[in-house]
Amino acid sequence: MIPFINTVFLEILLLIVCYLGDTLLQHPVVKQQFVVALTDSLTHGIVGGISWAIVCDLKFKKQECLECILCLVLAMLVDTDHFLSARSFSLKAALSLPARPPFHATTLVILVDITLVIVAAILKSQNLILGAMIFTTAWVSHHVRDGHRRGLWFYPFGETAAIPKPLYLGIILAFPLLMKILHLFFDKQRLKDKTIILSGAQLV
């Protein structure tokens, strides 16, 4: 599929998934806590997976598919902090916390990213840079979806107001495109480094 058409298709699919996921959460049929939690978690995961498919311009190569799956899993893992904070596997306890659990602090995403980039620069590790990009795509998509209902939490500074739906959807659609630009730059840099290494090997 032509890259532009592929991106447009995935952006539309991303919008549909967000709309369906949000609509289902408000539907009278979805009342049981388990169903609500599962629906929300799956929506987070699918949004993360599709977001990375946009970033890497998915052509269904093995590496790309694995990256999409990793992004999907990371987007869903954010909610594990409910159980960690509750110190219980009880869904009721996990959903009845007095405050937001730690993985929902957007400042944590920023700190993890800064740490990964610094370590990647020291170790000259392209894999860490790629990992940071996948992590960011996954967790930002989760935080923005949650932010539509509760705002973003910038610990220790406080929370923003709930993100209006048009803005929330706009960020969800725009963020993978921003990451796509960074990913293209990353690919060019990786190709450049590989060329330098091969040229050096030939000279030897």
Report mean pLDDT, rounded to a whole number: 89
Strand content: under 5%
- Record the strand order, biggest sheet: 1-2
Inertia-based shape = globular
The Cα radius of gyration reads: 19 Å
Count of discrete domains: 1
Helix proportion range: over 70%
- Tally of helical runs: 8
The succession of helices and strands, N to C, reads HHHHHHHEEH
Profile the largest sheet.
2 strands, antiparallel
Poorly predicted segments: none
Structural class: mainly alpha
What is the rounded distance between the termini? 41 Å
Q: What's the β-strand tally?
A: 2
Explain what this protein looks like in three dimensions:
- This protein is an all-alpha fold and about 200 residues long.
- Helix content is about 75%, strand content about 0%.
- The chain has helices spanning about 5-25, 35-55, 60-75, 80-85, 90-95, 105-125, 125-150, 165-204; strands spanning about 155, 160.
- The protein has a two-stranded antiparallel sheet.
- Helix 2 packs across helix 7 (about 125-150) and helix 7 (about 125-150) packs antiparallel against helix 8 (about 165-204).
- It is globular.
- The mean pLDDT is about 90.
